[in-house]
């Protein structure tokens, strides 16, 4: 009987330990975040407000005269360039700095979106879609790496979660507004809006008070 009681007591202690550790309260404070993190989150949010769904790119291609098959082929070309350059630009960003590479990507995006609004000939699409692939390759993983420079391992989960949430909310808004601009004013305005937001984000990143000299 004594042995049985001893076994039960030992098993109770093993169950209490993990419960004590997992009962720690989750804490997150915006005020305590590094100012550089706050600014980058703001920049990313502003940029995403103008980055409508890629479906608008295909719609624009069809609007300019491409068939559905050719529009999809042009989009595949963009994905191919992204895949080929992703690793190279990622390594290059490690050498020249993540901020510079991300800023470059914002400029490329602004150029591509502005061009999508200006062009009247579908021939230019075969150049613009690959260039758009350069933007993705220059920003996709680089943005997360750049953000990681300013956060500790302890706050990484919270910050990255907040980052993804802001991007998701902004992307929904961007596609909603993009659709309204497309139908109410014209297809070009959707891309002009995205180009302006991207360029404004570039300026904020380049001349922001906390990121300027990094």
Describe the overall structure.
This protein is mainly α. 79% of the residues lie in helices and 0% in strands. The protein has helices at 2-22, 35-50, 55-63, 68-96, 98-118, 125-148, 156-184, 187-207. It is globular and about 50 Å long. The N and C termini lie far apart (69 Å).
Principal-axis shape equals: globular
Number of strands: 0
Q: pLDDT below 50 for ≥5 consecutive residues: which ranges?
A: 1-17, 19-24, 210-214
Amino-to-carboxy terminus distance: 69 Å
The CATH topology label is: Growth Hormone, Chain: A
SSE ordering = HHHHHHHH
Domain count: 1
- Average pLDDT for all residues: 85
Assign the CATH architecture: Up-down Bundle
Which features would summarize this protein structure in a list?
about 210 residues, mainly alpha, Growth Hormone, Chain: A, globular
What's the short story on this structure?
This protein is mostly helical and 214 residues long.
Helix and strand arrangement:
Layout: H1 2-22, H2 35-50, H3 55-63, H4 68-96, H5 98-118, H6 125-148, H7 156-184, H8 187-207
Helix pairs in contact: 2-7, 2-8, 3-4, 4-5, 4-6, 5-6, 5-8, 7-8
């Amino acid at each position: 009987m004594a042995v049985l009681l001893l076994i039960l007591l030992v098993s109770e202690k093993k169950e209490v330990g993990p419960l004590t550790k997992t009962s720690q309260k989750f804490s997150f404070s915006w005020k305590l975040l590094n100012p550089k993190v706050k600014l980058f989150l703001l920049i990313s949010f502003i940029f995403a407000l103008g980055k409508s769904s890629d479906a608008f790119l295909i719609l624009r291609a069809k609007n300019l005269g491409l068939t559905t098959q050719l529009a999809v082929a042009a989009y595949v070309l963009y994905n191919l360039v992204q895949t080929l350059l992703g690793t190279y630009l990622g390594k290059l960003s490690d050498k020249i700095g993540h901020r510079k590479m991300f800023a470059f990507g914002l400029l490329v995006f602004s150029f591509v979106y502005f061009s999508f609004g200006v062009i009247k000939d579908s021939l230019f699409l075969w150049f613009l879609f690959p260039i758009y692939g350069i933007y993705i390759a220059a920003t996709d993983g680089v943005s997360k790496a750049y953000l990681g420079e300013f956060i500790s391992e302890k706050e990484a989960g919270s910050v990255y979660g907040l980052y993804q949430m802001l991007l998701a909310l902004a992307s929904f808004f961007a596609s909603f507004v993009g659709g309204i601009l497309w139908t109410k004013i014209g297809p070009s305005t959707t891309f002009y809006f995205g180009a302006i937001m991207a360029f404004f984000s570039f300026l904020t990143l380049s001349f922001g008070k906390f990121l300027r000299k990094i």
